[in-house]
Design goal:
Elements (H helix, E strand, L loop, with lengths): L7 H4 L4 H56 L10 E2 L10 E2 L3 E3 L6 E3 L2 H8 L18 E2 L7 E2 L5 E9 L23 E10 L6 E10 L15
Parallel strand pairs: 1-2
Antiparallel strand pairs: 3-4, 5-6, 7-8, 8-9
Length: about 230
């Protein structure tokens, strides 16, 4: 129906619908911004966790590479790797060995500064000279052997930390291949692996201790083998 221009009903219209619409529009905008912010935060958290997991995977992969490197050597007791130079010079296939410090009483041991730095540095540094390398690429998604997308190839270092004293009082025993038990004097090697994640913002470090005993051409890889 037609309402006269000067009727009381027409005079009561003051734009209430527009005001209510604007209020709802502001509320919807706030809700959208909150949901967007929460999604972005969750994506960053997920990306950070993935980055950390990639770094840990790379560090542990480097450890397995170091253990496989030792497994493929021919051990007949004792340290079968040459001693790395203390000045960090580049040599092939060596293990870092702690040096005796007779300047203190009682005498202690001193580690190569490059070894200490590799184990404890918060920044990305190369492995000391003479350290083996992990031979499989881990910096892409293509190819037969590339299984990750790390920012850089993982690196590792091997230290000879002394004879395996398993069985001696107050020493921890370890599981060992049956073909290696009671044969020779196994050497303990400490392997340190470092890896970045999907970006250089993550650096993970992992260590393992490997007991290398008698191993001639992988003898003892099968529990039924005899040396």
């Amino acid at each position: 129906m037609n309402i006269p221009r000067h009727s009381p009903y027409a005079q009561r219209q003051r734009g209430a619908v527009l005001f209510v619409a604007l209020v709802f529009l502001i509320l919807i905008t706030l809700l959208a911004l909150t949901a967007t912010g929460a999604s972005i935060l969750q994506e960053k958290m997920t990306g950070g966790m993935r980055n950390r997991q990639l770094g840990l995977m790379g560090a542990e992969t480097a450890l397995r590479g170091g253990e496989a490197y030792l497994l493929n050597l021919d051990f007949i007791g004792g340290n079968q790797l040459t001693q790395c130079p203390q000045n960090g010079g580049a040599v092939s296939s060596c293990a870092f060995v702690p040096q005796a410090d007779n300047s203190v009483d009682p005498p202690g041991i001193v580690l190569n500064p490059s070894v200490q730095s590799f184990r404890a540095s918060h920044t990305w540094i190369p492995a000391p000279g003479g350290s083996p390398t992990y031979g499989h690429p881990l910096t892409g998604f293509t190819g037969d052997l590339e299984t990750a997308s790390l920012h850089a190839e993982p690196v590792l270092m091997i230290e000879a930390v002394g004879d395996d004293m398993a069985g001696v009082s107050f020493r921890q025993s370890e599981a060992r291949d049956s073909a290696r038990k009671g044969v020779g004097s196994p050497t303990l090697y400490r392997i340190t692996g470092r890896s970045q994640g999907g970006s250089g913002a993550v650096i993970r470090v992992a260590e393992s201790v490997y007991s290398a005993g008698l191993n001639i051409g992988n003898a003892g890889a099968n529990p039924d083998d005899t040396p």
